[in-house]
Write a structure and sequence with these properties.
alpha+beta, four-stranded antiparallel sheet, two-stranded antiparallel ribbon, 2 helices, 28% helix
C-alpha cells in the first residue's frame, strides 16, 4: 500500500526560513498523522502562528471538519502568505468541492 502524503509549504524569499506541514493518510480532512517542521527563526514563529490559528479555529466558510483537518492548516498558512508577500504558499491538497443534495444538505468532498 502506498503512503499518501498531503503537503502544505511556506517558503520565505530569503531561502532560509521554511515551514512544512505534512498529513499522512488518504483523507486530508482526517489524516492519520500530521507532521510539522520548520527551518529558521522566522519559520519557527510562522509555524507557531499557524498552530495557534488552528487551535482557535477557522471561519465557518472554510470547510474544515476539525482541528486535525489539513484544510484548517492550509487556511492559516495561506493567510500568512496573503498578508506577507515574502512568503510563498504551496499545497498539494485537492480542491474542495461542495455539492448540494436534493434535500438541501451540503456535502463537502
Amino acid at each position: 500500500m502506498e503512503i499518501v502524503g498531503w503537503k502544505i509549504v511556506l517558503k520565505h524569499e530569503n531561502g532560509i526560513d521554511r515551514v512544512e506541514i505534512t498529513g499522512v493518510g488518504e483523507d486530508p480532512h482526517k489524516p492519520e498523522e500530521i507532521l510539522t517542521t520548520f527551518r529558521g527563526r522566522n519559520g519557527k514563529a510562522v509555524l507557531e502562528k499557524i498552530l495557534e490559528g488552528v487551535r482557535k479555529g477557522v471561519p465557518v466558510i472554510v470547510p474544515a471538519l476539525s482541528d486535525r483537518d489539513l484544510y484548517a492548516y492550509s487556511y492559516h498558512a495561506g493567510r500568512i502568505a496573503d498578508e506577507d508577500p515574502r512568503w510563498k504558499f504551496e499545497s498539494n491538497l485537492p480542491e474542495i468541492s461542495i455539492s448540494e443534495e436534493e434535500d438541501g444538505e451540503m456535502l463537502i468532498t
